[in-house]
Design goal:
Distance between the termini: 41 Å
CATH architecture of the largest domain: 3-Layer(aba) Sandwich
Number of helices: 11
Shape: globular
CATH superfamily of the largest domain: L-asparaginase, N-terminal domain
Mean pLDDT: 97
CATH class of the largest domain: Alpha Beta
Structural class: alpha/beta
Bound molecules: succinic acid
Helix content: 25-40%
Number of domains: 2
Low-confidence stretches: none
CATH topology of the largest domain: Rossmann fold
Order of helices and strands: HEHEHEHEHEEEEEEHEHEHEHEHH
Largest sheet: 8 strands, mixed
Length: about 350
């Protein structure tokens, strides 16, 4: 290390904890499935990684301590507001969110569209509770802070650091219920790697994000919540009952997770066409987990008034549709253009 580098002040990284298995605890160290997520405090979590002190000055906040299966609009709004406030401070260089793995990809994409900063924002998590033999959380946290402290991680959208890999918020998805490398970015691949203190990027994100996003958190805050958008799945034997119930309940948008290239059971497709005719926005995505949904491919989008989600999975399509509707954009061409851009 040069003399100059030795005297350079450490960057400051904010660590916002929201719960998850990374803050989970079991009765015994051999338990990796029977445990409670979201119980360990951010201070106890940070104390398990003394090496953080040589990478960054840490500013820690406990935003929540939940199992991420229970994530919802209110916490998303709180989280995005706090992140924007912290990143607007000159003394914060980057930010890490410790989260559960179950809805990590949805939160990461929500932040991708609502964080208004180019500073590094990194989401991380764990598959094994902190109490487990070979817990993966501490190393994932160390790698996440390493990434957030690195200036090369700036202006790349929201990143996910997991199992030494760096994923983009739009592409990443959970692909295993138990494995330590539980995340993948199907079709597009990882953005890079973070390992042993080194950060390596292999590609950039091309879709619009963060400071380029047209979505404004103020608009959502004024409304207090996102418009109601739900996901339904097409499958053998699908009926129209769920769609009809959602329309009766006043839902503003429906994302259908279709089979294959977003094809929809004829009965369900008729229900969705009726929903659209009654003013509900309908987005057609795929339940397959990789690939894209081609506009007017496996269903006549133009004729039915449906939007194609392209490569966005159903759960992220729900986030984008809810944000669009909150901004008053419900017309088909506008919605399709947003799905083509984000
Ligand atoms: C959660 O998502 O909060 C629980 C599961 C996990 O973090 O792996």
């Amino acid at each position: 290390m040069s003399v100059e580098a030795a005297h350079r002040p450490l960057p400051t990284v904010a660590v916002l904890a929201t719960g998850g298995t990374i803050a989970g605890e079991a009765a015994d160290a051999a338990s990796t499935a029977d445990y409670k997520a979201g119980v360990v405090s951010v201070d106890r979590l940070l104390a398990t990684v003394p090496a953080l002190g040589s990478i960054a000055r840490i500013h820690a906040e406990q935003v929540a301590n939940i199992d991420s299966k229970d994530m919802g609009d209110a916490l998303w709004i709180t989280l995005a507001r706090r992140i924007n406030a912290l990143l607007a401070q000159d003394d914060i260089d980057g930010l890490v969110i410790a989260h559960g793995t179950d809805t990590l990809e949805e939160t990461a994409y929500w932040l991708q569209l609502t964080v208004a900063s180019t500073k590094p924002v990194v989401v991380t998590a764990a598959m094994r509770p902190l109490s487990a033999l070979s817990a993966d959380g501490p190393l994932n946290l160390l790698n996440a802070v390493t990434l957030a402290a690195n200036p090369h991680a700036a202006a790349r959208g929201v990143l996910v650091a997991f199992a030494n890999q760096i994923h983009g918020a739009r592409d990443v998805t959970k692909v295993s219920t138990y494995a330590i490398d539980a995340f993948a970015s199907p079709e597009s691949g990882v953005l890079g790697w973070v390992q042993d203190g080194r950060v390596e990027f292999q590609r950039r994100v091309t879709r619009a994000h963060t400071v380029e996003s047209v979505f404004k958190l103020d608009v959502i805050e004024t409304q207090g919540a996102l418009p109601a958008v739900q996901v339904v799945v097409s499958h053998a034997g699908a009926s129209r009952a769920i769609v009809d119930a959602l329309v009766d309940a006043g839902v503003r948008g429906i994302v259908v997770a279709g089979t294959g290239n977003g094809s929809i059971h004829a009965t369900l497709q008729q229900a969705l066409a009726d929903a659209r005719a009654s003013g509900v926005a309908v987005v057609r995505s795929s339940r397959v987990g990789s690939g894209h949904v081609m506009r007017n491919g496996a269903a006549p989008d133009d004729a039915l008034g449906l939007v194609s989600a392209g490569t966005l999975n159903p759960y992220k399509a729900r986030v984008l549709l809810a944000l669009a509707l909150a901004h008053g954009w419900s017309e088909l061409a506008m919605l399709q253009s947003l799905f083509d851009q984000y």
